[in-house]
Amino acid sequence: MSPVEEWVKMFGRKSVITVIITQRASDDSIENELAVEILGSIIHQIMERIVVTNSNQPLVVEQATRVLAQGGLVLFPTETTYGAGVDACNPEAVTKLLTYKSRREGKPLSIAVTDLAMAQQYVEVNDQANTLYQQFLPGPVTVVSLGKGMVAAGVESEFCTLGVRIPDYPLVHAVVNALGRPITATSANGSGAKRPYTIEDVLNHLSAMQTALIDLIIDAGQLPVRPPSTVIDTTLSTPITLREGGIVVKPDDANANHSICLTSSSEEETKRIAGRLMLKHWDSLSQGPIIVALDGPLGAGKTVFTKGVAKFLKIDTPITSPTYTYLEEYAFVRFDRSGTLFHLDMWKVDSQHVFERLAFAQLLAPNSVIVVEWWNQVAAFVKPLLANYPHVLIKCELNDQDQSQQRQIVIRE
Asked: Is pLDDT at 192 greater than 70 in this prediction?
């Protein structure tokens, strides 16, 4: 037995790992690089890892439930990929999971429940959501609803929404049932890493610090390579697909051009719609700009929509339409990402010569959010430029409905 293994036997894995993590390099101490190497070796040698079989599933369920109840982090197989689960109602466990995942930036952590009745304890299930539950669950569909604030902080999104899954995987279903509370149902890979279909897919892409946070691994070997779950937001007037997985769910008013029609009853709801669209595409911002192309008559809410984008980006500066200046820019810092919001009003741009003076191509950079009012004025000039840059283009047409406070928003992505 090595000295390190003896320390583990005497003081416990977590104690030894904590010492190594906090040890500072000095003339008479473990060098930091060596400490990390030793740490990785310890973790792999003593990490609790159970290979699940048909005969030992009851014991696996019992062990997983015990670890989760004690605030532990468990990696487990699902019908899509390997997942990372903690007790969704335990604040310390959720903090551990958020540290393990490294980066969430406001996104919700979906939860796994046993059935609709358990879901209704944690979210508001409206008619849209109920229809999806009846048609697609159990199965690889995540239904996003308004949360009831019953889970630990960090599980619901910044919009107070929460994704719910009823897993079509008996082991996971049995664990949730035994625990009596939902567990998180996020994938086990660290942020930005490949989708994990084996435990090695997970461990080979984790740092030693991340690996140290894992309390139990349930290993079911190689999982079938399947798409992720489809994620549907049911909190607006029409369901929105936030992520398309193996199951394609189309709302009644979606068409072949991938457009969807939403109804907003207030300026605040219009802002929330803008924020949801930004959250949906947020991860793509590191590769190229997000362009929000707004059209609609005067007073339809284009600047209100821009204010919603700015609110999502945590910009405190008042947003006004740059009718006379053509372009305004606002620096933003959202979580650990900084960038620039460019707000353009193209109402008076009536020629390519005038458009070229704006140097639009210089805006097409990663971490740029570009909101263009009166998009159709310049669409013909912009489209050739976009062919040369990775980007996300979201087209929104806004119209006030007859003498009412309701606003119709048609979104094409």
From this structure: no
Residues 306, 192 share a domain: no
34 lies in the same domain as 55: no
CA distance 52 to 77: 10
Q: Is the dihedral of CA 43, 194, 84, 80 positive or negative?
A: negative
What is the extent of the structural domain holding 187? Answer: 47-252
CB atoms within 10 A of CB 168: 16
* Percent of the chain clearing pLDDT 70 (strictly above): 84
Cα separations in angstroms, 213 against 11, 98, 166: 17, 11, 26
Task: Extract the tokens encoding 36.
Answer: 């990390």
Domain boundary pick from 252, 282, 305 = 252
CB–CB of 346/375 below 8 Å?
yes
Give 162's strand partners.
Answer: 145
Please say if the pLDDT value at position 198 is more than 70. yes
The model's pLDDT over 149-161, given as tens digits with 9 standing for 90+, comes to: 999 999 999 889 9
φ, ψ at 232 (rounded to 5°): -120, 125
* Residues 242-271: b if buried by 16+ CB within 10 A, e if exposed: beebeeebebeebeeeeebbbebeeeebbb
Q: Give the sheet arrangement for strand 290-295, strand by strand.
A: 259-264, 407-412, 392-400, 290-295, 368-373, 337-345, 327-334
Compute CA distances 300 → 175, 342, 369, whole Å.
50, 20, 21
Q: Is the peptide bond before 138 cis (omega within 30 degrees of 0)?
A: yes
**CATH code of the domain containing 383:** 3.40.50.300
CA gap 410, 178 in Å, rounded = 45
Q: Are residues 328 and 287 in the same domain?
A: yes
Do 208 and 284 have their domain in common? no
162 and 273 inside one domain: no
Q: Classify residue 395 by its DSSP letter.
A: E
Write the single-letter amino acid at 266: S
* Length of the chain, in residues: 413
238 and 260 together in one domain: no
Task: Report pLDDT digits (tens) over 111-152.
Answer: 999 999 999 999 999 999 999 999 999 999 999 999 999 999
Element (H, E) at 264: strand 259-264
> What's the confidence (pLDDT) of residue 237?
84
Residue 25's pLDDT is what? 37
Nearest to 103 by CA among 220, 224, 186, 215: 186
Nearest CA to 221 out of 204, 245, 196, 188 is that of: 196
69 and 186 fall within a common domain: yes
Coil/strand/helix, residue 398: strand
